[in-house]
What does this fold into?
Amino acid sequence: MKPIISRLRHTVVALLFALSISAANAQISYTATFDQHLLTTDTVSENGDSYLRLRYPDLWTQSAAGTPELPVHYLRFSVPCDATDFTVSVTGETTTATRYTLPVYPTQPPIPSDRNTSEQLFVSPDSTVYSNNRYWPAVPVQVVDEGFLDGDNHIVTVAVWPISYAPTDGEILFRNSVNVRLDYSVKNAGSENPSRLRAISRRATGRNNVRWGREEAKRIVVNPAQIDGFAPTTATRSASPRTVTTLPDFEYTVVTNRELAPAFDRLIGWKRQKGYSAGVVCIEDILACPDFQGGDLVSNIDDDAGKLRAYLKYAYDSGSLRYALLAGDYTVLPIRYGTGRRSITIKDSQNQDSSIYVDWPIPSDLYFSDFNGNWNVDGDSSYGEFESSEMYTMDYAPEIFVGRLLCTNRQEIANYTEKLIRYERNPGNGDYGYLQKAFYCQSDEMQENENAKTIKSAWGDIFSYSKTMQEDPGPYDSITVAPTGKQVIDEMNNRYGFFSWHGHGNPGSICTKSNYRYNGGKRKSHTYHFGIAALEKESRKCYMNDAEGNGLDNLTNQDYPAIAYSIACDVTPFDIYEQYNVTYNIGSSFTVAGLYGGPAFLGNTRSGWVRSSTRLEKLFVEQIKSNSYQLGVAEALSKATFSDKWCKLTHSLIGCPEFEMWTDIPSVYDDISVTRSNSSITVAGNGLNGSKVAITSGINGLPEIKTVTGASVTINEVSPNSVVTVYKHNAIPYIATLYLQNDTLRSSQYLHVNNVHIGKAVDTNRTEGDVVLKSGTLTLESGGDVWIDEGVIIENGATLIIECKGNVTISGGTVERGGTLRIDAGGEIMIQKGFEAKIGANVEFK
It folds into this structure.
């Protein structure tokens, strides 16, 4: 029978915080409460035996296979940056004992959501546990993790079991409340931290002196009021042993190779207009830089991936880096493999099926987002293992937010950039309603577990409309008639802002209707299936029965870019996985293969788990709903608060980590005015409160962001020739008319603008003066009209490119010999008297 589970959440109430940070030893106490009325039971049968399964809302199991499957709750404590030697104990509890006839169901290995998994053997109860009357677990609290969020926000995770089980008596001991005490030591000032995980004392610069991790940590720990007091007030050690003078560092960094770097000009221009210092750093320069020849000094790994991590750590230590887009698959950039442990079925010496655990390499960008963790503490060739001896050496809390783009050529980068900017600036060409529509698809075990229903419920009223497609009649029926991959693609073409795909997968496909046959709830292996493919023409490579209209390349949502999340196995590896040498995997097809799909795919580089991966997706939803709207932030923090280490390694963001997901119909700014003087810009207007005002050139020529707390803001000591962008969550960005006047330009810039006026006297509020392009390339991507007046001079070696949707009017200006003017207009190009192109000038109109 199926359990009926209440949707109420259990409550956890803090009764006491006790701390003495001046002493060598200190403690924090906390009381968690649980409601026994929310506990439900279910009877299941395996191999002719019946078992009792226990369920508690929002609590999941995390135990060794064969031990009793009991729900567990996790408490996260903020502790001093230099705390160590953690122990946890129960100082009091109130309990209720109940006896049951049936034994508690034994924990099973997680079920992978890939296409090649054979029937999983049932793991019988562990006799060392089930044959005695000692309570399991013997101690209902355990320190299970430690990490540093944003470098030095020290967090310790404690597992609390609300239930203990005495097998031979059949007694269930339910804890209505449990007093938990976390003890630790505080090292003496100036001494080395004996813990193998160490804090990073990041430099605070003038631009970026607010640590994001403080506020994020307050959201996830049980003692948020103590976080500010625990943070180090001064650096206790050098932020970086390296001194790098040859490589730049940015708040938003794209790492790619030299061949692809120019293709990111458009993306970098948009990030600068949002107020971030942004730029490209070439992997060739990182690998050749003398300062990184030792590789990853935290893990003592001296390879190309280690050098890349070392550079990113340097940029973070310097106080700049917050977002990194790793642009390239394994042929472009180095990748790091973490090590997971997975159960597989083999034939033993008697030719009988037997389960064993094997190490599994998992491409993981988690390595590049954290700089505290030691990925090779044992010095072997397997990195990031999950062994108990590795406790406190891996750190799953991020310092920066990372996304990866699986691009190999410039056209793919252009495809991606167009979708990202379309999503942020003009989704649906003004038809914004699709952003409040969500599409779910589920099959096989995912349908049995109602994964789509779980995620749909988690989103709540974020989406006003949702559609779910699943196997019909059901996942256990011998013949299923729908949905085919084509049917799913056709439905997705009805315009949705969010896709959630729950099916078995491989790099080139996700199952929508299976040919599996079931026996007592167990899945039998069968290779061919129906589903959505990365590319229609490569369906057969991925063992699909349907090969017409089922590819993501049949999506027609060019003007309606979406975000996709999937728990399916192996759908977006950074490498070639097993025999699947496909042109594009699911993740790369969705993001870079064409103008269909969208700017973000969140999926697995290796196996996902049928249950655990859905819990991770739910945490992602909760992060979005708690104001972590940026995709990279929500993905990283969902993993930082999750218990399954395999899922943390394998699940990855394919796409930009900085942009925000729409969670409502966007509003549009109106009545905004921008006034420019020779050294300041004032922005005022309706709906400005709470918005960010960004300019492309502030102090020292760097982009700048200010948050408005009223109806206007003035930014001083800035170039009046800056592009002004106003934006906030769920509002279409406003870009003010640009007036370029009295300036000399010597560097390349890419500017996203609407109407543009260029000339010596286009703004009467400012000092007159020519606009001289000395060198570099100025690209103006205009959504409106462009006027070029008297006083514009393009000198030898300089280039002005105008890509304009409207009209271009040229009433003055000079293109010198060796200078270049290139105009591509959607409307008319009107050239009036006063414009001059000298002999040897390069002028091109389209």
Observations:
- Confidence is low (pLDDT under 50) at residues 1-23, 234-239, 518-525.
- The two ends are 70 Å apart (CA to CA).
- The longest strand covers residues 83-99.
